[in-house]
Amino acid sequence: MINDRERRIAPTGAEREARKLFRATEAKEALSDYAKAQKAFHENRERLKAERLAREASAEAAERGSKLAECAREARHQAALLPKGPVRDALLRKSEQYEGQIPNDSTYTTSEPR
Question: Is pLDDT at 88 greater than 60 in this prediction?
Answer without folding.
Answer: yes
